[in-house]
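[Automated response] Your request has been received and processed.

Submitted sequence:
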Amino acid sequence: MKEIKTDIEFLITAFTYSFASLNQNFYLRKRDFKVIGVHIFDYSLISECKAEYNSGLTKEEERDIKEAIIANEKGYDTHIFIPRLTKEKRFEIITDFVGSTEKFKEKLEVNYQTLVYSTKNYGVEFHRKGIKVGVDMEYLTNGIEEESFKSKWTEFYRSRTKNIALKWLEHQVVEISKTKL
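Generated structure:
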């Protein structure tokens, strides 16, 4: 199998992005395995509206995003939608982390239960508490001030997500290779 040059950190971000958010989608371009993030405002790049839109992106980034949007809208087989971690998988990762540490255990368990409850009954009260819809992984350490511990959590869930993302990417590479035969 040929070496794949994919931005793995961006792929991990795509997987960990809130599953309930409609602000941004991520795609894997088949020809070069590039991860492309498409924000809702990026649709202005292909709009027929004559208003000026300054995306702040380079011409190459704009071209990549336009290509991904058009491919998705027209159903072209050139890009693959990158899935996000399900809430079940997120809760599994959280449970594994909470089970692996004694530090701040009570606070972690309270935050975990709040996240679980928020997925069943999300409303204004959760928004006011700073809980983002879609199991915001960072909320687990809410109220914990120790930055090294917060970093430990971030490293843990990104490492676990990396394994999932790489397995998914490997499967995509195999499938794409089959179609080229």
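Summary generated for your ticket: The first strand starts at residue 24 and ends at 29. DSSP finds six helices and three strands in the chain.
If you did not submit this request, please reply to this message.
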